[in-house]
Design brief:
Two copies of one chain form a homodimer. Chain A has helices spanning about 20-25, 30-40, 80-95, 120-125, 160-170, 185-195, and strands spanning about 1-10, 40, 45, 50-55, 65-70, 105-110, 110-115, 130-140, 150-155, 175. Chain A is of the alpha/beta class. Chain A has one domain: 3-Layer(aba) Sandwich (Alpha/beta knot), CATH 3.40.1280.10. An eight-stranded mixed β-sheet of chain A has the order 6-7-5-4-1-9-8-10, with helices on both faces. Chain A is globular. The interface of A and B includes residues 43, 80, 81, 82 and 178 of A. Chains A, B: Keywords: Cytoplasm, Methyltransferase, S-adenosyl-L-methionine, Transferase, tRNA processing.
Chain lengths: ~200, ~200
Amino acid sequence: MRTFIIKANEAHTRPDFKLSDLPGTSGRIDILCRFLNSAFLLSHGFRKNVRAWLLLYGPPEPPKAIRFEGSRLKVRLNPDERSTARLIMKALKAGEGLREPGKEVEVYPGLYVSNRTFEDVIRLTLKNSALYYLHEEGKPVEEVRFPTNVAFVLGDHKGLGPEDEMFLDGIAERVSVGKKSYLASHVVAYINIFLDSLPNPP
Amino acid sequence: MRTFIIKANEAHTRPDFKLSDLPGTSGRIDILCRFLNSAFLLSHGFRKNVRAWLLLYGPPEPPKAIRFEGSRLKVRLNPDERSTARLIMKALKAGEGLREPGKEVEVYPGLYVSNRTFEDVIRLTLKNSALYYLHEEGKPVEEVRFPTNVAFVLGDHKGLGPEDEMFLDGIAERVSVGKKSYLASHVVAYINIFLDSLPNPP
């Protein structure tokens, strides 16, 4: 089981953006669309053993947590950004007016929205997965022995802030796919292909 | 120097598609947009040592060859699909009415369009690069010794046909990033990150 968690510091938390201008109007929800593409899609296939969490911290109602559960997802995840952004919009619409911090609304089977925080999601994930923070200065992934359940934390184009990094210190091992700073979607694509190559892939 | 070549069997060769529905109206030019994103983009950076060729073979005027030359590109390549599709549209518009097979039109500095065929582009590339065909059954990239100038050939969602494969036999080494069938953009992201990790990256 593979979990990918991305914190999107500016991603809008209401469906107030334009599908025709995601980079300019949504707080870069286009990044989340490509992240989901890399997390789940194969050529003519879909990774059921993946869970993805989007943590949206942009205006006007942060945070919103959107969970895609590969094993249960009944709605089709297409490779293009626009159709994925439409799913995120639907989730944000379903999450409007949510007040209870712990309550998760099912948007479609396998797609959920809640007011969970980044810290909530990390704590929840730690219960059954080894946690890794993808960072240029981490240990090369080739040298890590990954267990059966793995979870990877990534930042968006702004990266994680010092408070998030402090929170992760001691609970997440820093691992790296290289010394350069790569786009989140490229890192996730690399990690998935790399994990597939292991004798016992998570 | 890294060259990435993709043959898109159904990609439209005139700008007759809708930016608001790339998968449905363009013959999957969305695939080419994500391919370019993976070929060129770093987080807050751009790979100048990359050349990308899009070989479009869809209706109504195949073939069209679009070349993105990283070292000279003056127009901004943004990460989102829609703005990249707009560049492809501009190139196709500039290529309308082109008759001479060998003539290349400069759309912007570093962006060119021509009527070159897949075979033309492969022959041209062979002059200064070692050629690799990315294929599930190829030699693992980890076992390949890559020279300074490398070129990778990929298919789109339909893959390359038997004629293309026959043409590549003997001139391109089959190399693989894994046994599964991956999306072109994921393969290119993997290859770029993998090449970066080599002692003398191409």
